UniProtKB/TrEMBL annotation:
One of its GO terms (cellular component) is cytosol. Pathway: Protein modification; protein glycosylation. Residues 9-25 have a biased composition (Low complexity). Homodimer. It comes from the Eukaryota. Belongs to the IspD/TarI cytidylyltransferase family. IspD subfamily. PANTHER family: D-RIBITOL-5-PHOSPHATE CYTIDYLYLTRANSFERASE. Cytidylyltransferase required for protein O-linked mannosylation. Catalyzes the formation of CDP-ribitol nucleotide sugar from D-ribitol 5-phosphate. CDP-ribitol is a substrate of FKTN during the biosynthesis of the phosphorylated O-mannosyl trisaccharide (N-acetylgalactosamine-beta-3-N-acetylglucosamine-beta-4-(phosphate-6-)mannose), a carbohydrate structure present in alpha-dystroglycan (DAG1), which is required for binding laminin G-like domain-containing extracellular proteins with high affinity. InterPro entries: IspD/TarI (IPR034683), ISPD_C (IPR040635), ISPD_synthase_CS (IPR018294), Nucleotide-diphossugar_trans (IPR029044). Its main location: cytoplasm. This is D-ribitol-5-phosphate cytidylyltransferase.
């Protein structure tokens, strides 16, 4: 399914959004490099969301009214040098994904049926470029293919450009981050077996990029065990194609959405406390802001700093709020 032009009257993008950060062009990105290289992106989105809990897979959970996968697709389609975006979903969610594409006017997107594991889903996403029986029409085979999780919406053009350029040079590349915690191995009896020296190891993140011919050959060489139990694409390129991936230091916001993220978006960001000083004009501004916020968030309160009672103390020590403080600097109200 390829999305056509946006239809008149489709819902506008919410003003309050899971930040406008996804796909924001970076002034430091090397546009001239990837721009002359055919590049495509494969987004595995076939997870069941078991670790998140609940009936809805996390890629389809709404964040501020919009499905999470839509933010990630938007981040990719904002980058002009990515020619095709392949979203791989489980068979039962194909129609859901197609409706998301239509509703939000996504372009250059094809929906592909996923497999029973992550690797099998990615392999299916690659097949649309080379196997006629897998797609009604073949897409142009890219020189470089990006693989990126559909549940990682915070991806910038700069890191995508870096892994693509590194993949052109080394055959494969992937974002990494320092380990936050020390990794330990447990013995069969549940006791500590050994620990890893944290300084020597890194956490593998997304995005990753590969010369298409390398990663496709790697998947063709995979055993059933590789496809059913493996999760690391860089390892497949090393194991089956002897390609040593270039590791690219990623940014701190490449994390995957997890239950804590949804708690924050559903609770913390929906609770706002507007604080004003004692001046009447500023208090009026606070009241108007309070009234306007009521229609957009679940909880909003307005309070004056002149109140010195237990209610004010409870506000600061009780629930978690986003705070908006209004005071007066010269003749202007400062937010």
């Amino acid at each position: 399914h390829r999305a056509g032009p946006a239809q008149p009257g489709r819902p506008a993008t919410p003003r309050r959004t899971l930040p406008a950060r996804p796909g924001r062009p970076s002034s430091g990105s090397r546009d001239a490099g990837p721009a002359v290289t055919p590049v495509a992106a494969v987004l595995p989105a076939g997870g069941s969301g078991e670790r998140l809990g609940g009936a809805t897979p996390k890629q389809f959970c709404a964040v501020q009214g919009r499905p999470l996968v839509s933010y990630t697709v938007r981040a990719m389609e904002r980058i002009s040098w990515i020619s095709n975006i392949i979203v791989v979903v489980s068979p039962e969610n194909i129609e859901t994904m197609k409706s998301i594409i239509e509703k939000y006017g996504h372009k250059r997107v094809m929906v592909v049926k996923g497999g029973i594991t992550r690797h099998r889903s990615i392999f299916n996403g690659l097949k649309v470029f080379v196997e006629k029986e897998f797609s009604n029409h073949l897409l142009q085979k890219p020189e470089v293919v990006i693989i990126h999780d559909a549940v990682r919406p915070f991806v910038e053009e700069d890191i995508l450009s870096k892994v693509v350029m590194a993949a052109k040079e080394y055959g494969a590349a992937g974002a990494i981050r320092p380990l936050v915690s020390t990794v330990i191995a447990s013995a069969a009896d549940g006791c500590l077996d050994h620990s890893l020296e944290r300084a020597r190891y890194r956490a593998s993140e997304m995005p990753q990029a590969f010369l298409f011919d390398i990663i496709y050959e790697a998947y063709q060489q995979c055993t059933d065990y590789d496809l059913d139990y493996g999760t690391e694409c860089l390892h497949l390129a090393l194991k089956h194609c002897k390609t040593n991936a270039k590791l690219v230091e990623g940014t701190a916001d490449l994390w995957k959405v997890n239950p804590l993220f949804f708690f924050i978006t559903d609770n913390l960001s929906q609770q706002v406390c507007v604080i004003t000083d004692v001046k009447e004009a500023v208090a009026q501004i606070g009241f108007l802001l309070h009234e306007s916020l009521k229609s957009q968030v679940k909880v909003t309160i307005s309070i004056s700093l002149s109140r010195n009672d237990s209610h004010l103390q409870n506000i600061f020590s009780g629930q978690c709020y986003n705070f908006v403080c209004i005071n007066v600097s010269s003749k202007d109200a400062c937010f």
